[in-house]
Amino acid sequence: MSLRFYDTSARQVRDFTPLREGRASLYLCGATVQAPPHIGHIRSGVNFDILRRWLEYRGYRVTLCRNVTDIDDKIIDVATGEGVEWWEVAERNQRAFTSAYDILGCLPPTVEPRATGHVPEMIELMRRLIDRGHAYVSEDGSGDVYFDVRSFPGYGALSNQRIEQMRGAGDTEDDRRKHDPRDFALWKGARPGEPSWETPWGRGRPGWHLECSAMSTKYLGSSFDIHGGGLDLVFPHHENEVAQSKAAGDGFAQYWLHNGLLAVGGEKMSKSLGNSLLIPIMVRKVRPVELRYYLAQAHYRSIIDYSDESLHEAAAAYQRIEGFLVRACEVVGDVEPAAEVPDPFAAALDDDLGVSQALAVVHGQVREGNTAITEGAKERVAEAAGRVRAMTAVLGLDPLSDTWAASEGSGLRDVVDALVAVALDQRQAARGRKDYAAADAIRDRLLAAGVVVEDTPRGPRWELRRD
After folding, report:
1. What's the pTM?
2. Are 294 and 315 in contact (CB under 8 A)?
3. Are the C-beta atoms of residues 230 and 39 closer than 8 Å to each other?
């Protein structure tokens, strides 16, 4: 099966044919940094991280550009409310997003441009649009620049809407400056106390949509392969990107991929609803790798309705994978990932990144591996473990990888291992002299401390209790 994705613009699954053979260019709408990230934000990062990893596994050289919107109405509003500079808000929240991506094992993007670093490219794009008759400068001298949506016949195609049925853009306080209320702001004239940059049409700051068009084409070219983002960005953000970019003469994105949203109790997650689940809070409930598993396990286009119960079910599922690999290594020694993933796993990911079906293949191999351990079939154990490592590596979930093995310890695991070993030696000594009460007491004290002891034919093994 060829690699296929659901293209929002075509409203169907299409074979992936890159513009350049062996290369894949991907632009992902990143954070607007007015607040720290909740898991709804980071779901997009995890989904597209898996896409990037799978493209690389399939032999593509991937260029991933993930932007940061560091100037925006919301950022300015937060700064005003806190009585701080706008850039303080942007900087602290960008660091929070970077930390969250790192905590959940997302590979760093090839480039991560900030909007404020690309004002010259935005000015050039506006100039092209004005020269082509697709944008105009407000006549009141405010410095506002607007895109004329009626000048672009394809406006509404991405979101499958008719312009006559659309409401006004709602991005300015006074629509009387516009030729049409649906025209959207490319540039907003300077206001007292707000940041601004000089342009040929007056000082001001960029509109949200203009930023992404300027940054994506700077780093990926006038035409590139994939544009990604959350489903909530299809309109107006991505619709407006398409309009301004193609009106300026760019081919722009060939495929549009959108991840589904994350809800709580059926409602979209947002700070206004008071149901945001911030990353530092979530990784106290489960380990980061278990949170990644939770966000990755559903199909990327589906809606996830969050609950603590579903989170812990996902953590338990991940622990079954992890537990098998730990036991396998105890039986056969260190296991390297297999050279290739199983065909059913590859077919699942080739078909619009079917992670849930791919994980079913992973768990099938885990069951086969556990059976082999029970039967003492070491060769089968090693083969199953190698396949599991290969598959979980593609998903960024390999429990034995440096990313997650290192995160489990930070040096503390070795200390705990040594201390537990002393207790287990004492327990074995008690059992040797048939003092089973003392042996049970040691095991119970370890359990109370969060250490689960399992007696196996190869001797006792331990792991931390996962509640």
Report:
1. 0.88
2. yes
3. no
